[in-house]
Fold:
Amino acid sequence: MVRLYIQIASSTDPDWSPRRTATAEEVQASAKKILHPYLIEWERVEWYSVYPIGQGISDKYTIDHRVFLGGDACHTHSPKAGQGMNTAFLDALNLAWKIHAVEAGFADRAILTTYESERKDVAETLLSFDNKYAKLFSQRPPAAKEVQAASEQTNAQVEDNEFVKTFKESCEFTSGYGVAYKPNALNWSPAHAAKSSLINPQGSKLRTGRIMINADVTRVVDANVVHLEQEVPLNGSFRIYVFAGVPAVTSRALEDFALRLGNKRSFYSSYLRPDIDSVSHHEKHNPHSLFFTICTVFAAQRSQIEIARDVPSLLARYRDHIYADDRWDRRVPDARAAAHAKMGFDQERGGVVVVRPDGYVGIVTSLVEGSGTVDALNEYFGAFCTNKLGEKMAQL
Ligand SMILES: Cc1cc2nc3c(=O)[nH]c(=O)nc-3n(C[C@H](O)[C@H](O)[C@H](O)COP(=O)(O)OP(=O)(O)OC[C@H]3O[C@@H](n4cnc5c(N)ncnc54)[C@H](O)[C@@H]3O)c2cc1C
Structure:
């Protein structure tokens, strides 16, 4: 199937309304003219529509955080950018997990306010990119001699070309990796209520409010090489990635982490499943809580990892989410544990990343012996969860 976009000339006539008057035959005639001296014929037209290009954005995405707008209902742009569907999906994803978290009694209603602030900001960035991009598209097409000259250009000259420059600069944004949510209760920053000194450890390359860095690892139970960031489905859960470093170095820290997660007032144990005693043995992602899935990644070869020996039982229950960081990666060719290195973690001592249910990094902490790591996460979740969290609270 082939999709053609044919621009219909505009007019100053107030009665001009191509949506009413334009026909598929006229558009086909235009296509034939454009492609001449080549020929184009149609066996059949599957779908045809007239689409006025317009940019628009709603002032508000919500009424009282009870009615929400998303997708084309609150932002539109030219089809040149090709981002409408992506943006609509991501609006829905951003909103869906927040509604789930609030309705299920996990998070305060206040997190719903982050939907508009996060997604409207993205739509505004999209519109300004689209504006620039559509203008470049609409410029006069290059003459044959300019095309010839362009093909003889050096790399430096190509980089200078405004269209190429804009296209390259925008790749991060158009691929989705450029989305950057600003600090709020979900995206840690120094202004966040969580103040532990373990947060945002030195060297971390992860940025809160941005997608987690991609990394390939080996799943321990079946030796499959997997994309770590795709391992937990969109199940409404926060993903806790424990980069566990070298087992001989971190065994105590890992034990302490699991022990503190098991404390009654921890962010984790405060939200256990009501049906926890009857959860199927085959449940991979949410055996204990509907709000968390835990992944443990060791900086070791798969053959060296023994789950029963190296992984505390609470974490070992997520046996399908235990990985060996033993894949070579060209971006960190000298690293012994590439995923640890890419995240910016110490390859022996590791660290912990909390990723929001929609894939954006919420907070990064060190992995340490004692209660510090879970304390830091209690502070983070305490900023938007419904229950009072942490040991200190329990003593009050
Ligand atoms: C020609 C064209 C090409 C495009 N190309 C791309 C592209 O390459 N890449 C890209 O990412 N995006 C592209 N888009 C944009 C993309 O299709 C839209 O941005 C996306 O579909 C918006 O999704 P949405 O769910 O917000 O709205 P829609 O997909 O429009 O869904 C709204 C739904 O609501 C229904 N509805 C409306 N009123 C009512 C009512 N009163 N009661 C019940 N139901 C109702 C409608 O029938 C429709 O099914 C293109 C759009 C067009 C028109």
